[in-house]
Amino acid sequence: WQLIKENSNICTDDEGIVESPVLQDTHTAEMEERLRRKLQFFFMNPIEKWEAKRRFPYKFVVQVIKIVLVTLQLCLFAHSRYTHVNYTWDNTVTFSHLFLRGWDITMEVNNYPPETGPLSVYMIDEFFKTIDYAAAGYANLPQAIGPYSFPTEDNTMAPMSLCLYRYKDGTIFGFNESYVFNPEIDTLCVNLYQNVTVNGSQAYLREKDIHINFSALVKAELRFAIKTVNFKAAGPITAPDCYRFDILIFFNNQDHDGQMTLRLEAEPTRLVCHGDVEFIKNSQIDDALRSLLNILVILICLVSFGLCARAIFRAQLLRVMTCDFFKQTYGKDLSSDGKWEFVNMWYIMIVFNDVLLIIGSALKEEIERKHFIADDWNVCSLLLGVGNSLVWFGVLRYLGFFKTYNVVILTLKKAAPKISRFLLCALLIYAGFTFCGWLVLGPYHIKFRSLSTTSECLFALINGDDMFATFSIMSEKSLMLWWFCRIYLYSFTSLYIYVVLSLFISVIMDAYDTIKKYYKDGFPQSDLRLFVGPINPNDFSSGVFRDHEEFEMEVMSLKDAIRRLFCGWKASSRGPTGYTSLMPKASTSTINN
Hints:
By secondary structure, this protein is α+β, with helices and mostly antiparallel strands. It has helices at 2-7, 25-42, 46-53, 58-99, 124-139, 196-199, 201-207, 277-330, 336-340, 345-368, 377-399, 403-441, 451-462, 467-472, 479-521, 527-532, 539-542, 552-555, 558-570, 588-592; strands spanning 120-121, 148-149, 160-173, 178-192, 217-230, 241-252, 260-271. The two termini are 17 Å apart. The relative contact order is 0.12. GO terms for molecular function: NAADP-sensitive calcium-release channel activity. It is a multi-pass membrane protein. It is found in: Cell membrane; Endosome membrane.
């Protein structure tokens, strides 16, 4: 064993590497037994490790604490985010009623199919009346029910900004089919002050010698801001939130089809409130508790990250050690299946979700401390949501230690390669139907207007959703396309519902039957599992796993361990016996003697 320790220190140059003879039986037996015990302990579950070595399951306890803290954090953040998003949407609806001419209550809810067409203007006079309506509503802001204020220090009306995006030259002479066109877009912005409500925007622009050529107008944007305070979020220890809404009324004339669509957007920005001093002091309790929870989540994720990263690193060191043993003892490499036994995808997933949760918690803390000028709610919710889902998925690892629950995991693992190949073939057929439907039916069917909506419609048909409406909505302008739509939809639904889905289920059931057979007749064993062999139940109480002797890889420095890990791949194909010794040339005579 001392000889093996001398031969496994570091990588040397090509000139310092010589081939070593096969170990003597006594050395081989001793090293084999120690390595087998090490591998048996490596493949144990936390309960077996406790019985074998009285090792406390730190990673399991950390994961339990993490799932509780992360779920609590997510629930609190989800409530805050819902309040924030709902408050923003409600104010957007209010602003649409106050500033958007022609807005109706039927437009507040997104129905499918839509009950009304897009809000649009069709006449030049309507364009200026829409601007005048918004300016008048902004001037009468104090009359609104909502607690809205102007963004100025003295609460007086701030100027509105009207920006016109026009082609540099765009004149159309339709009577003789001619035009003058320069595609370069020119931008002109002008401030609309309070006096614009007296004479109207059209006269106001004429006074400034601004003439709008609607043949060349691409789009127009009307911008202004409003400040408000949200009392709804306030509670016994929660302070109100202050916001500034940057409002945009967008006139879209990019298609130049005579229909200029309107859209209002309100982008909220959270501000620092200057309210009642005593109430602010009370609200600091809530801020402190939320900050404490964020810090605890970050700390527990750092501990989880460290434990799992350490386990992944030690597993790779053990892999290198096992590969060296197989080369030096049996003169062959460990199989690829055996090498993959050392890759724990559960730990990799936990490390990934720890990174997501740490970044998300830090971002959440910054949002709650109002350190961001613009709220990054969506990014934060994405990080915390994905991280939390992976934390819950990680619980399956511990359920997998029980036979009843492990069947599901093994079935998915067994069926994954076949499912991937099957989905690839099904996806090619699906892509053909998607592109065909988008091209042929797009101009005549609302569900096929874009590539994404076409794919969504076909996926809904696979699940039997809204079939009759998909058939009946098709326009009858072209009889040929009407019949093509019927043949297209019947072919797709028949192929995917009766054939593809049935084959998909049969692939999973075949994997399930295979796993059941494995439980009955035994699982196929890799060369690594055959070497490890079964564990004698008496070994748990005999103390054979509790000795304090460790392999040299576990006591060497981190630098040497990393060098040993990467150098293990370097010397894998030298020498006629299929393995390479790491012993210097000077020690060869010692071995032969």
